[in-house]
Write a structure and sequence with these properties.
Length: 360
């Protein structure tokens, strides 16, 4: 996917969100597209940064937008629930809630970032909103890699890049923010098509050229074990598993994928002294989490597992609790019109052509 296509895609999303708002479709379309509830995906929550080149900007929202999101959810009369409650409502819709029929929203945060505690938690607490933090244990250990951030920081530092890849050379000028953005998009999607070992090796080479310390990035961005232990006992907070090293599981053999899933659960439970009932697949799209992974998560004893396949939760998902869809709060679309559209379900009804399940 090149930069032009990426920009067109985001402009298209903005146009769809605006059209839904202009027609009031976020209200009258609910009966058509809105499910029983939705699980929202978040990553970073932190103050707006003045950075021209920010290719991972879609992964961060501001505390102010999180606050507006929670206010709108409450104003619409929706329930903010934990993942345990969401699963209970799907599994036993008649007995699970005294507020039968109320749309519910569950909040999930992936990876285990410091800003989730520093900037998101105060906002969540002020609204009495339960939330789940999916932790990659290797980030807490400082052994796993934030390779997408390494790639960003390397391109930010270098005036040009040159790599020899198995499918041919890659070279790009990276003098200006525009050139850096073009290079990031081109190289990111090219590497995503490669085996993960090649992706990691190529980014390591770039990071070395730029003098980027991969471990220091993880230390800067991710929560350490002592903070996670304190967080695990806090009211309204659920800790979930997000593998040991954040791999794209479907790209690996079954034994590796099983170990990443099973051992992340046991490691978290040993470190935190609490049961870990929920799992999130890293990256989580159809190329990274497939039916094999859904079976492995169920066999590992998780009550649920979440993907990044976009969509609302419907009654049919009660039979697919280890392949649950989520809706991302995208940092490039921090507007009320976008939020109303996402909560209405209409964009996903259109995207999925009316299909409620995406589990293949």
């Amino acid at each position: 996917m090149n930069l032009r296509h990426q920009n067109l895609r985001h402009h298209a999303f903005s146009a769809v969100f605006g059209a839904i708002a202009a027609m009031g479709a976020d209200r009258w379309g609910r009966g058509l597209a809105q499910g029983a509830g939705v699980i929202l995906t978040l990553h970073h929550v932190r103050p707006q940064r003045q950075v021209g080149f920010s290719p991972n900007g879609l992964l961060e929202i501001t505390p102010e937008f999180l606050d507006r999101t929670l206010m709108l959810i409450r104003a619409e009369g929706y329930d903010l629930v934990s993942l345990d409650q969401a699963v209970a409502r799907l599994s036993s819709p008649r007995q699970s809630s005294q507020r039968k029929g109320r749309f519910f929203v569950a909040l999930t945060f992936d990876d285990g970032y410091r800003d989730n505690v520093e900037h998101a938690w105060p906002v969540l607490a002020s609204h009495g909103a339960p939330w789940t933090l999916f932790v990659t244990t290797g980030f807490a250990d400082r052994t796993a890699r934030l390779w997408w951030l390494e790639l960003e920081e390397a391109i930010r530092a270098l005036p040009q890049i040159a790599l020899t890849l198995p499918d041919g050379p890659f070279a790009a000028r990276t003098g200006s923010d525009t050139e850096k953005q073009h290079a990031f998009e081109a190289l990111y999607w090219r590497l995503r098509k490669q085996p993960e070992a090649i992706l990691l090796s190529a980014i390591s080479e770039l990071a070395a050229q730029a003098g980027i310390d991969a471990a220091a990035l993880v230390e800067r961005e991710c929560l350490p074990w002592d903070m996670l232990r304190a967080l695990a006992g806090a009211p309204g907070v659920t800790i979930g598993a997000h593998t040991l090293t954040h791999p794209m599981l479907a790209r690996h053999d079954a034994a590796f994928a099983r170990a990443e899933i099973v051992d992340s659960k046991s490691r978290l439970e040993a470190e935190l002294g609490t049961p870990v009932r929920h799992f999130a697949y890293p990256v989580g799209d159809p190329t990274s989490a497939k039916p094999r992974e859904f079976v492995l998560a169920r066999e590992a004893g998780f009550a649920s597992a979440v993907t990044t396949r976009p969509g609302h939760l419907f009654a049919e998902h009660a039979d697919h609790l280890h392949a649950l869809p989520r809706v991302s709060l995208n940092g490039l679309h921090q507007s009320e019109s976008a939020l109303r559209a996402l909560l209405s379900g209409l964009p996903f009804w259109l995207w999925n052509r009316g299909r409620r399940l995406s589990v293949g």
